Amino acid sequence: MKNILKITIALAFLFSLSSCWGDKSKPNYQYMPDMYKSVGYETYTENPNFSNGMTTQLPVEGTIARGDVPYEYENTNEGYEAAKIDLKNPLELTEANLDNGKKMYDIYCMSCHGKSGAGDGVLVQREKFLGIPNYKDREITEGSIYHVIMHGRNLMGSHSSQLTTKERWQVTMYVQQLRTELLK
Amino acid sequence: MTFIIIFLMKILYQTRKKRFFLSMKSVKKHSPLSRLVNSSLAFLLLFSLSLSAQQADVANGEKLFKANCAACHKLDKKLVGPALKGITDKREQDWLIAWIKDSPGMIKSGDKLAIQVFEENNKLPMTANPHLSDQDIVDILEYTKGEEAAPKAAPVAQEVDPGVERGKQIFKTNCAACHKMEGKLIGPELFKITDKREPEWLKAWIKDNNALVASGDKLAKEVQDSNPAAMTPFPQLSDQDLDDLLKYFAVGDLKEVALVTADASSEKIFNKPGFGVIPTLGVTILVFLLLSLIVAATTNKKLEEGEESTESMLKSMIFNPFLRFLTIMFLLLGGAWFFFGWLMQIDVNEGYQPIQPIAFSHAIHAGDNKIDCQYCHSSAKHSKTSGIPTANVCMNCHKSISEYNGPLFGDYSKEDLDNEIQKIYDAVGWDKENMQYIEGYEQKPIEWVRIHNLADFAYYNHAQHVTVAGVDCQKCHGPVEEMHEMHQFSPLTMGWCIDCHRDTEVDLTENGYYKNIHDQLAKKYGVEKVTAAQMGGLECGKCHY
């Protein structure tokens, strides 16, 4: 009889050990945490060295990231009009550019503007956003399209943090293609 | 349940319709011919205010109020003139009738109260309304008594005019990007804008506001200067369209509001928590214990009957050295197996579900609204980490979506979820009433808790998997679009990585850049398709260096 008791105690003990990570809202045990966690600060960690306590910092004012070209048109109605007339797409119209433009469009624009650019995306159908214009109803140029992706306009926000300069131009190219197709 | 509710709603709807016919009849009664009869009945009506009669008064009163008073007065707010709700409690009815009919005359005649009112309201003279009959004014005053009848009356008007419905459609497709019916968005709110501006002016403004400004219209210039965002011209709208649109502005969609609240209440009934998992489990365990107790009791009795023989058998078994050896071996091996299992699960965080600072639901954003994963996690395509979106990405949509209107989930009420959206505004300093960022606001980071975290000695690159290999996010992160609360779906162990590298075939058709290497590898291994492992996906140095 004693043995049976011992067995059950041992089994219960082992069972409790094997399932001891009970609270799933806390991370599990680690063997040697100093091998798991880097000494250096990781992307989103807190950081006592900066005044705002974050590792991610904005670029120092007045500096330009390597390979980046500053955008000169201001986020105003005048800037929009100027970009509409003067700004031109530096990329060549190629299959590859259009392909990537479509890829990016499907991720960043389609939810509202719809697959064909008719302003009938899922968010419009579900009435989360309303009044998204059809591309064919608006006088838009490559300059104005780029400007709006860069700075946003009215309720549309800026998408410059999600797309690189090249991708923005590719999307512009694709939007123009959609527009010509809608105008047919 | 659903059927009962639908049935109830049907009945409600029908009774409302009946009421609508009733009120229509009584409105017709107010033709000039029957007015005489009516005014003679007014005395009686005032004393015996039956429900339907009161409504008739109110409906007519509302119509007259909108036509004659609403340019300068609102019920609940000061406009040009004072708010009119409850005015009948403050002033005598006879005085009010005289005042409304000819206020300038009353001031001239030296009525003290009249002069006082005139001076209280910045000496802005009120227009005389000599065309209104006493009965009309009584109706209007009845309307100002309270708004309870107003929502009932509004849907009536909506059903009368199909133009309102059309106007609503036009509003949705053209205006709603910048305007809301109630509350400021990019442009001002449009509900009852018809009370503030002349219809002709509104039409000209909507068609081409720039032309209107250019034509030298002062009001247009003022409106344009007061708002930094330029309004888009809508030359494609016809006069009929504009008429309908203005009708919609005047009426609004109170009916829909009523329906939505009905929906929400029925939703609540269905979302009431039933018999939860934990009580059910508890009951099952209790029943099981009881059963085992009964079984134990009965077997014990049997043991007592044949006590001697069984005891000796048990004794011989326990003291048998070979059997003892076997049991100990079994226990040791079993223990080692469990111990090994325990060691293996250390730092495996499958199912890790921390409490996040905002109750963000992937199921709503990625599932219901079908927003692409990379819309928010945009750095996954170029970077090692698939970034946590900065709050400006949230604000791309939540500038206009400041409250949650979808089906409820979890234990959250609508207020809770609206509060969760408010947390973004608190972080970035967004003033949702005035639709602008608060100047000089000290922005605070949203402290999300990281779920997927590889040990520092393992290298993983999102861009390589997402952009180069074209692996779906769900392959590793599971059905995120169904999770209200995010948790870790995969174990993220080395064995798990390698399993996938062994199985995954590399797409050779759309990758021209690596074509030569792929061909060589295929020849080397004598296969047609190359797996990630055969390309070096198992080499230690690929991930540990």
UniProtKB/TrEMBL annotation, chain A:
Positions of the Cytochrome c domain: 96-179
InterPro entries referenced in this protein's UniProt entry, alphabetically: Cyt_c-like_dom (IPR009056), Cyt_c-like_dom_sf (IPR036909)
Top-level taxon of the source organism: Bacteria
Pfam families: Cytochrome_CBB3
UniProt cross-references to Gene3D superfamilies, sorted A to Z: Cytochrome c-like domain
GO molecular function, one term: heme binding
Protein name according to UniProt: Cytochrome c
Organism classification: Bacteria, Pseudomonadati, Bacteroidota, Flavobacteriia, Flavobacteriales
